[in-house]
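Sample pair:
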Amino acid sequence: MAKYNNQKAKILFLQQMLYESGENHTISMQEILDRLKDHDIPAERKSIYDDMEVLRYFGMDIRYRRERPSGYYLAGESEKKTARPKLEIPVKKEEPDFSEEPEKEAEAENSSAAEDNKIGNTDGSWMQNKEDFDYTRQMKLVCTPEGRKETIRFFGEDIQSRWRDDGTYQVTVPLIENQRFYGWLTAMGSEVRLLKPKKTVQAYRDYLKALAREYKIER
């Protein structure tokens, strides 16, 4: 195979390596770096973490196995080998013609304006006002990959997240302290855990204690 001195090809080689992996056939960070070097593509660990984050965003369930054989793998690939992804150039969509439907266009604009002050799940189940968030202060959460998806649905796309070697994410979000947030956090169970600030953690503990008292079994 011809060697590529091209950083743009790095994520494609990484994707190919992950498609060849599995839960019992993991690939270590050092192996990833060595194989990229074989293609004349020097890389640092941080850049690989960033590329994995991009691949996860586009649907690849990349996980890290701590026990031997330790390393990274693509979930589900140990049972079935998926063919290499077919790369396609997106086709530019034609611009819709709204000239004959001015009333519908106006309705859409009004609906969008009404939702400008809302944030949360697209189905409305956890919808809340932006005023509920204190954007001058932050909270830190630890999320599983599935918990991170639900966190994005609750807080919106504009959050900060960092992949951790134990297979979870550390997520930074605006501060919110109300029963709607506490209820959502309770529903997430072990998928999302509140780390900081300590006062908010204590407030959430008090919420749970009060909730438990409501369900105290009387003898």
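The chain has seven helices and eight strands.
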